[in-house]
Amino acid sequence: xxxxxxxRDRRRAETIREIKDAALTxxxxxxxxxxxxxxxxxxxGMTVQSLYxxxxxxxALLAALLVDAHNQLADAVRAAADATAGETPLARRLATTGAxxxxxxxxxSAFLLIYGTPVPGFDPEVHEVPSQAAxxxxxxxxxxxxxxxxxxxxxDMPLPPxxxxxGDVAIPEVPMPLSPGALALFIEMRGLMHGLVMLELIGHLQxxxxxxxxxxxASMHRMSEMIDSLKPTPKPLxx
Length: 239
Hints:
By secondary structure, the protein is mostly helical.
């Protein structure tokens, strides 16, 4: 690549970062549904016609922000999982769930873009928002949830009471194979974690708002105890 081409590519990347930063600021102020390319262009001193050379529509910009958010959140959780490799199951669960919460608090608008109310008229699938980042986020959580479990114990995890038909669901292929019972437990535990974070973000954790971090950690302690209590009992050896 020529020096001129390298400089041009670097300038383009810098401009794209400026556009995305301005868009995230607008999400903070007005929400995703009100995102305006004209307002974003104005914020960085660019004409909207020039901005179209980088993102040809509002939805293209939203899709790029959504991909970034997925990947950044997955990176934060993956880093927490890797940093606690070999530690106790409780330590790994607290680290990964804590990283999830901390990223959400620090990046509220981006988090709500992923998990909040869908933006009217915006379909991520149409814009080929990849699912790989969602899998990347799920895998370190699964590693933490089932830390200390053997492959046999994961395979032997029964379906929850009243969930007989869950066994008929097609299980997607992921790097960490889970039985239907284990997958059901994983999604249930992730729902607990996610729900608490959402309640805090939208101001519904009263009267514990001022101690949100401690409340969350205490809840994750209890979740970890629940997971350990549900570990299948090893089957007796038959002679």
